[in-house]
Design goal:
Layout lengths: L5 H4 L6 H13 L2 H19 L4 H48 L5 H10 L1 H4 L1
Helix pairs in contact: 2-4, 3-4, 4-5
Length: 122
């Protein structure tokens, strides 16, 4: 079984992972998350300055690594969804332009409307 594109996995409705990724993406772009990152960096600097035991340094470093890994996964998910939405819009524009050139009216116009409204659904 080949993995599906993230935008195709849930069909018309959003799955749990999609909703979680959306909420996490919104949080990571907020000032609150920036504050969390500042606290982690300040903790690392403080741990090194106070020459705390290696266990504390490792704990702070592992926390920062975990946050970085989660952010990487969220970034990739967001990138794939945006890529898919852009491609669908380009396909719909091309089909609508072809219909206009052939002086036809058909499903491409409806697909173009759907593709344009994808921003509100995603």
């Amino acid at each position: 079984m080949a993995p599906q594109h993230p935008a195709d996995r849930d069909g018309a409705r959003q799955g749990r992972f999609t909703r979680l990724a959306e909420h996490a993406s919104n949080f990571t772009s907020s000032p609150a998350f920036f504050g969390v990152c500042l606290v982690l960096v300040a903790g690392a600097i403080t741990a090194h300055t106070l020459k705390l035991p290696t266990q504390w340094l490792l704990m702070v470093g592992e926390a920062m690594s975990a946050v970085a890994l989660l952010l990487l996964a969220l970034l990739k998910n967001s990138e794939r969804r945006a890529e898919h939405a852009i491609q669908r819009k380009l396909d719909a524009i091309a089909a609508a332009l072809l219909e206009i050139q052939r002086e036809e009216s058909g499903a491409a116009t409806d697909q173009l409307r759907d593709a344009i409204s994808m921003e509100e659904q995603s």
